[in-house]
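Recap from last week: sequence in, structure out.
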Amino acid sequence: MQYKQLGDTGLFVSRLCLGAMTFGTSNVEPWSAIGTLGQKEAGALVDRALDAGVNFFDTANVYSIGESEKILGKALASRRDDVVIATKANGRMGAGANELGQSRYHLAKSIDESLARLGTDRIDLFQVHSWDPVTPLEESLSALDDAVRAGKVRYIGCSNFAAWQIAKGLGISEARGLEKYVSTQSYYSIAGRDLEHEIVPLVRDAKLGVLVWSPLAGGFLSGKFTRDGEGEEGARRASFDFPPVDKDFAYDIIDVMAEIASAKGITVPQVALAWLLAKPAVTSVIIGAKRVDQLDDNLGAVDVELTSAELERLDDVSARPLPYPNWMMQRQGATRIPENGHLTD
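Predicted structure tokens:
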């Protein structure tokens, strides 16, 4: 296993993180479509990940309505001091008017409840799960700062924020002396490269970590889907078609990945994961599984080395036209980028 510094902190996390979204036996949608693993099955995945050197585990309070945190906490109980546990809060956890969002009320309550479910005295990385359009960022960041100072949380992060929202939060933290986000957990895959336009430049400038969720685009990049519909029956996407994917475009990418996989004697998912791991901005890629053999296949991606020619081929087939103002910045800034130490005319 390889490890990488989390943002601008001194904490190192494994390049692959085991996501616990498949943990839990809830029959509530969409969790029942994603995974319904009990303690025994989930424990086997956790044990296998630990054996492979994974020290990073991610969950959220809404996953199976709290069950995921409970199962993960029990699976890691005897090895708590050897791992980094990340969880999240924002989504609805009850019927009350204040059972969601990032108010001081809800965040303080969520942190205490997550600590209890995980069976631990601290959360290593606590992330706000999405943007809250109601609560002022000052209130949310102050509440998170209080949690860090109380020893309940060690680092804070955000998830599913736009670049301007991350930047605003960092600015508030800087101005007020509050804890700042050290990472963003965001969707990124070879079939969904929107992150590269605004967020990647921001995180590289601000030295934030990038934690990738759904690196296989909700299983669409698993290699089992074909243009004629094969592989869809019984798959997660049959009942939970998420995240959005331009399927015709993605099939062209899969064709190239399949050729590379065949030539290297590896699998299509390993190519998709290795492509992400080769991106400098990516800190850790969150992998999920229902079975140990699926997990083993994903774990093998850390040993895959794609050549520069293979990476270029994958970049080319998955490229999309730049959105404005990116294409204008590229055009106008071209002569400002040094070539061999010299500016071009």
